[in-house]
Specification:
259 residues, alpha/beta, Rossmann fold, seven-stranded parallel β-sheet, three-stranded antiparallel β-sheet, 8 helices, 10 strands, binds fructose -6-phosphate
């Protein structure tokens, strides 16, 4: 895994946006896998800026989101549908027909999840998947114990995740306990993965992901097997890495072999 350590959150966002923008310049009809949560907000702000000020074009882009809460309608203020439209999609020129966000309200989830996987395949697969990481090392909502070969399905959220999400809901009992989520296997098929992490609360999960064993107890650790995964961290999220000096050394010297 390539590890990029930046000074702060804004630098993570700019670095990640640069990678997304370069992809879109090279492949205007790219398929993007998108995440929600606090971490990618800066990336989305930067993409909106690039769209407005530098004409970054989303008109041919297809998007697939990682996950959605089960039981929240698309127009619920805390749904990931709302999050995506408020924080990115309504502010760039993406075509709504090319936006895919899992539907947490369908009756036959098994059939629906199979269809969602099929849509990703029919779009040609995901070129670049944006990922955040949970304190328990989850990617998407693949909580500890999720199979590293898993596909899109319903997952019961871990207590830690429910607690982390509680700040967005008025009452604890309103916090969803289930999500429909891409599996680790689905994510691993993306041609490139960008894992973003900011802040000391993520430092332990980040260290386990990058330097720990590959284990379903830290589903992000599966990315060690991905041929093109980049972890973009800030100083605090990198705080528990043992080989930090090496990653910084590699980054400093990258330019010379790219020339
Ligand atoms: C969201 C998602 C989750 C979050 C993770 C980190 O679509 O898939 O895995 O990326 O829970 O959330 P934040 O960024 O809020 O710390």
């Amino acid at each position: 895994m390539e590890v990029v350590i930046t000074p702060d959150y804004d630098a993570i966002s700019r670095h990640a946006a640069g990678i997304v923008a370069r992809l879109l310049y090279k492949k205007p009809n790219a398929v993007l896998g998108l995440a929600t949560g606090a971490t990618p907000l800066g990336l989305y702000r930067e993409l909106i800026r690039l769209h407005r000020q530098e004409g970054l074009d989303f008109s041919k882009v297809t998007t697939f989101n990682l996950d959605e809460y089960v039981g929240l309608p698309a127009d619920h203020p805390q749904s990931y549908h709302r999050y995506m439209w408020d924080n990115l999609l309504s502010q760039v020129n993406v075509s709504p027909s090319r936006v895919h966000i899992p539907n947490g309200m369908v009756r036959d989830m098994e059939e629906y999840c199979e269809w969602y996987e099929g849509e990703i395949a029919r779009a040609g697969g995901i070129d670049l998947q944006v990922l955040g990481i949970g304190r328990d090392g989850h990617i998407a909502f693949n909580e500890p114990g999720s199979s590293l070969g898993s596909r899109t399905r319903i997952k019961t959220l871990a207590r830690e995740t429910v607690e982390d999400n509680a700040r967005f809901f008025d009452r604890d009992e309103d916090v969803p306990r289930h999500a429909v989520t891409m599996g680790v296997g689905t994510i691993m098929e993306a041609r490139q993965c960008l894992l973003l992490a900011s802040g000391s609360l993520k430092a332990e999960a980040v260290a386990a992901t990058i330097e720990g064993p590959i284990t379903c107890q830290v589903t992000a650790s599966a990315l060690q097997l991905h041929r093109d995964a980049i972890a973009i961290l800030d100083d605090q999220a990198a705080g528990r890495l043992k080989r930090r000096e090496y990653y910084e050394w590699v980054f400093r010297h990258k330019e010379s072999w790219l020339r």
